[in-house]
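Let's practice the habit of predicting before peeking. Look at the sequence and jot down your guess about where helices and strands might fall. Then scroll down.
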Amino acid sequence: MDLLIARNPDPDSSLPYLLRVPLDEGVLVFRTKGTWPRTGALYCHPVPEDEWPTGPEIVERVALRSCRRRGAAIDVIADRGREQRSQIVFTRARGRETVFWQSPRTRKQARPNVRTPTARAAGVTELEIVVDAHERYPYTFSGQQVTTRRQGLRCGDYAITDPQDGRVVAAVERKSLADLVNSLQAGRLRYAVAELAALPRAAVVVEDRFSQLFALEHARPAAVADDLAALQIAYPAVPLVFCETRKLAQEWTYRYLAAAHQWAGTDSAARDRAGLSAPDDMRAPGAAVPTGSGAADTGGEPAATGETPEASSAQIREWARARGLEVSDRGRLRADVLRAWRRAHSG
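Done guessing? Here is the structure:
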């Protein structure tokens, strides 16, 4: 007894696979999106048995130990060492019959058995969050006192800006587990975190559990965990937070940005230390240059407004480390560190 997955011969269908499920009382055929519910539950569209092609292009053949209907679900137990158990569940969604194919891992991930609070974060009555224009499926922050505005961000996917000069105060980069691993292995994540480290406050939020790193099949889990740990050591000012589900990641992003909004509005000393009134490259694209700040219309570059204040190498090193920049303990400072310090203290 085998569970068969074949290519869907219909080129116009958005579900690229056909799933053939053998039961004692007959055979069920579904159109579906994947070959196994590994990272999320798969939607299945029931079709007549005669839609199964005469000469199917088999993608995967899974030997089964058991395949039985139990109430509103079909328990599928594969005869192999890993990914043995799954369920095909018949349920209702938005008033109509729906079928999902899920595994124990995806079911547990989808239902963390918590209810997100509706209380305002940090007592902020109204928070405006800038959403990067390139975000395809952005957070909506429904149920919270949040307004969103789409705008291009130089780094991060969600941010808040200083109402006085439009500079980015804090940003959050959102990652699914697959995107996190791919960008880490390709080297893109390090550059993204380096850009985030130049902001006063920033973080990376992952829509999954840390334990799922060790269930990866197409990457060495230990190597991925080591690379993430090394990234956190290199950029300690940018925390990497695992939030189990997309909904919880959205909640964490909302409360993090609200706390940053509170910090930026009340702690003027911290604002000065963070250089919120300094480098123009922290400004959200399209934000106006504030008058009286010493910045002129120079195409986004800060205008020369006088000599850079004197500072020792130790002071510059302390300033750079507070922003997550890598500096040596001894010797000459790198040119990019000096340049960043001078831009932050010009004028």
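How did you do? DSSP finds eight helices and 14 strands in the chain.
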